[in-house]
Structures are given as C-alpha cells and as structure tokens.
Amino acid sequence: MTQQAVATSDKLDAAVLKVAGVVVLGAIMSILDVTVVSVALPTFQTEFDASYARVAWTMTAYTLALATVIPVTGWAADRFGTKRLYMAALALFTIGSGLCATADTITELIGYRVLQGLGGGMLMPLGMTIMTRAAGPHRIGRLMAVLGIPMLLGPIGGPILGGWLIDTASWHWIFLINLPIGVISLVYAMLALPKDNPEPSESFDILGMVMLSPGLALFLYGVSSLPEAGRFGATTVWLPMLVGAALVVGFVLYSFKPKHPLLDLRLFRNRNLTIASVTLFVFIIAFMGAGLLFPSYFLQIRGESTLTAGLLMAPQGIGAMLTMPIAGMLADRLPIGRTVPFALVLIAAGFFTFTQVDPDTSYWLLCGSLFVMGLGMGGTMMPIMTSALKTLHAQEVARGSTLVNILQQIGGSVGAAVMSVILTNELNGSRPIPGVTDPASGKPVTEAGLAIATQQRPELLEQFGLPVALIERGLAFAADAFASTFWVGFVLVLLTFIPAAFLPRRREPVLLLDDQSGEQRPPMPVGLH
C-alpha cells in the first residue's frame, strides 16, 4: 500500500497503531502518576510524620514541573526531533519514579516528584504531535480518540491501582511499577517511532523562557496554595499569583516581536484553534475541578474505602470508552459543532444529580449519573482537541499541541483549587463543638469536621462521647457543602455551551500536512526505522 493510500484510508493500519501504542504507554504513566499519588497522601502523612498541607505538595510539585516544561517542548521538538525528545522524556520520568521510591523524607519525595514532572510534562504534548503527524489528515479524530483512553483510565484506574498497591505491598510500589513500564516504553519507542528529521534549529527564545515558565509556575503555586490558606488575601496566594500573572502578561505582549517565540500565540489567528481552546479551557475548569471531588464524596460522606471509591467511579470511564471511538470517527467526518453540544448536554444532565446529594443518595442514581457523564465526556474532550489541531500546518503542530496542553494544565489547576476552596469554606461554616479542639492545630472541631472524621475512624465517636444525632447533623451539613460546590461546577458546565456554540458547523479545511506552498505532502512514514 502506498503512503498516499494510507493517508486517505479511513482505517488505522498496523504501522500507525504501533506509534499510537508508544504514545498511549507514555500517557498512561504520566496521567496515572497524578491520580495514584492522590490516594497515598494519608499514607505519606503517617510515613513521613508530616501535615496534609505538606504532603499535598507531592502532587503540587509534579503539577508545577509539568507547567514549567511544557512551553519548552515545542521548540525542543523542532530542534532535536520528536523521537529523541520523547525517549529522553520517558527516561527522565522513569528515573524520577525510581528515585521517588527511595525517598527517606517528604522533602526528598517532593524534589524527586519535580524531576518526574519534568519528564511527564513533555510526554503528552509530544505524544499529541507524534500521533497527529502520523495519522494523516483524514484520521486525526480516530487517533486522538486512542490518545484519550489514558486520559480517562487515569482518574479511574489510578485510585484503584494505588489503593490496591498500598494495601497489599507498600507506598513505594506506586512508583516502582513505572520502572518496567518505562523500560518497555523506551524499547518500544526506539523500534516503532519514525526516524527524526528535525528542522534547522531556531534560536532559543531565552527572554520568553525567563518570563513564561517562571510566570506559569508562580501563578500555579499561588493557586495551589489557596486551599491551605483559605483566602485570596494570604500573602502566599496573592503575591505569587500577581508576580506570575505579570510575567505571563509581559510574555504575551513580548511574544509577537521575535520571529520564533517560545510559545507561538500567533496560532490563535486560526479561528478554529481559538474557539476550540476557549471551549476546552472552560470545560476543563468545570469538569476536572469538580470531578476531583466525586471520589471525596464517597470517602468522606459515605465512609467508603479508597478501593471502593475508585470502583464506584468506574461507570464514568466505561461510559466514556463506549462513546470515544464513535466520537473519533465522527470527528473525522462531521464538524464538531454538530456533535459536541449534544455530548455537553449529557454531561450537564449527569452532573445535575450531584448538586442534590445527601448522606443517603442512592448509589444506583449516582453511578448511573457518572455513566451518563462518561458518555458525554467521551464525545467532548478529544473531538475538541482534534478540531484545535487538524487545521494547522505540519510545522505548527508541535507548537499548537503545546498551547493546548498549557491551557489544559492551567484549567485543571485553577478548577481544582477553586473547587477545593469553595468546599473548604462551606465546611468551615459548620458549628463548632463546645470544648472539643484539634490537638494538632488547637482549633475548634466542627460538627461537619468530626462527622467526616468518624466516617473513616468510627472509634472517634466513643472517644469524644458525643451523641449520634450530632454526628448525623454534621454529616448532613457536610453533604450539603459538597452539593453547593457541585452547583458551582454545574454552572461552569453550562457556561461551556457559550464558546461551544461557535465551534465549526461546516467542514473544516485540512491543512495539517500541507507545506508552506500549499501543496499536499504525504504523511510522515511510520514504523519503518
């Protein structure tokens, strides 16, 4: 079969699927490591004798490293080639994972997580670039659907895998499990990815780097400090956010001057990329931010174990896996402006149930709603990303992927921080219990706080000798706090319909593999080297 035939065929041939396999393995490692660690935080508190706020930085440090390295990825991919850089990122991530398992203090673990994040941050944008170039203009939607699998499996499989490894082995194995996967991925990448043909190197935008990466890191540091501080007025929140925002704004004003800026904001002249990016950004804030609280409801209000909470989230992933292949095929044939709004309706319908939760809401209803949300999720995220990239020229794909990934990272961080602050403030409104204080902080214990604690540690009820009615009242208050927070997420989901209304409703011109003269080029050969 000729290369041109491969380009125009609707089917995914074996060579292209080999490339997809490499990218999916790398994405699974990167995404799983965010969600697996989330269930290990209580274990870290015990093992390292540290506060929750301190051990939470094992996640925050990883996120900050992701945000810092993503802007450099586009330039580095052009300079060194996607294959070399992808293998370097895999190696860095794998080495970081091994070091995390050797940590003796919480400070060491946080530092090794930064190293992990520097590798993990490059895996997703590079993977998107590799797959987009390999697919050909007619098959981007299908391959993006393949890339979406780890994005959905991570939030579902992570808590289940993490809970199982910690229960049956030790916390070290949530990192050690990456070592064999990393080695396999490196060998696989060496054999399956096409040989690099990097373009002549562009001058590195040092000034842009000095402004953008530290600016993003500082801004997200301030945002991530918000749940612990509890208010925007805290110096640890507003000062880094202000300095970070100033650096990012300075970069935006500067970036139109150099010929090859670190982040090519000129790509936003492409209407499809702009509309898709705005839609994706609002959607990520709404869904990813509130979505992190779904397992917390099962843990804190219903008293379920970590493993059970992870299993209760499974219907969402099942629903998404059912619709994602269909959405991928439709994205190759229909304008996404005709499909995404229907998927958003499913998400909003399922989300509404969580605005009504109480301590006894039916699991059948909640799991059914998660399944419906999953159906919508499978038809939303990857088609939007497909639309953002499919009208770019080949030489713009790496930088376009970088833009989309930065927006995802910022949106997810902002959404998680905002939802956490809203929930914390709602819970803090609970009545304090007279004469009962927290031995660690010395602050009064609230009815909601004690009710949540007794869900995981029933012996506290006897220890404090308090009536069951007080615990029930605190639990009802806590459930209402979750419902109020979910209302904010629901409203944000509805706001996503505004930019989604401007998504393309006509066939989009495919420029992905055009060269600058406008002549069609065959796709990059894959799996031949």
Can you walk me through this structure?
This protein is mostly helical. The protein has four domains: 1-203, MFS general substrate transporter like domains (Growth Hormone, Chain: A), CATH 1.20.1250.20; 205-261; 266-431 and 482-506, MFS general substrate transporter like domains (Growth Hormone, Chain: A); 432-477, no CATH class. It is built from 24 helices and two strands. It is globular.
> What's the Cα radius of gyration?
23 Å
Question: Strand pairing plus helix content: what structural class?
Answer: mainly alpha
What helical percentage do the residues reach?
over 70%
Which CATH architecture of the largest domain would you pick? Answer: Up-down Bundle
Shape: globular
Sequence of strands across the biggest β-sheet? 1-2
Q: Could you describe the largest sheet, including whether it forms a barrel?
A: 2 strands, antiparallel
What's the domain count?
4
**SSE series:** HHHHHHHHHHHHHHHHHHHHEEHHHH
Distance between the termini: 17 Å
* CATH fold description of the largest domain: Growth Hormone, Chain: A
CATH superfamily of the largest domain: MFS general substrate transporter like domains
Q: Give the CATH level 1 class of the largest domain.
A: Mainly Alpha
**Number of extended strands:** 2
User: Helix tally?
Assistant: 24
Spell out the key features of this protein.
single chain; 529 residues; mainly alpha; Growth Hormone, Chain: A; 4 domains; two-stranded antiparallel ribbon; 24 helices; globular; disordered N terminus; disordered C terminus
